[in-house]
Amino acid sequence: MKANLNFLMMGIVTVLGACSSTKEVKQIIPATPNIAKQSTPFDQDSGFFSGQNPAMTIIKSGKTLNLVRIMDGAACKNEFEGAKGSFLLYADPTDIERIKREQGVKVFTEFENKIQTFSEIALQQAINATNLDDDPFALGKDEAREKLARRLSANFKQSATPAIANFEKETTLTVEVAAFSPSFEFYQQGCQAALNESLSAPVNQTQH
Q: Are 167 and 115 in contact (CB under 8 A)?
């Protein structure tokens, strides 16, 4: 699925940390011990983060994956409803170094495109599958948003898991793409108008 007015992926994935000029791309600085202590645990089963800081590392299939990139994305379910937020890319640094030695750095351009494509599709599928109405039993707006975030995170994980498995089989690079639920903002009216405004906003150029 290509980016369009119904889906805006504002970050380009870069597992190598190379320089890029993109909109709303956040490069990860290696964690210090103090930052690592503040990292939020990641629920492997639901894909849900509780707290304001993403985990700097997660465990997958016995491997420690490092947070290497943050993507910002948004999608509309219809003209009125949708969501936007951040999505975290984790990768195995040992795999990265091995693939660079065996296949060269240029192969990661293809990996970037594949990750972005399946992340876009997974987010759109997750938005389509999520009931974006507030829970009438929630105790306030914060709890209502958290419940929505949990539902969307779980649906994103369900949509992304098969694509991630196929990617790992094709590339031999162990990765995880997780929705960072504390970053989510939900549209319950005017989603399409908000995304149109985002598309027309100036692009920030980043120089390295």
A: yes
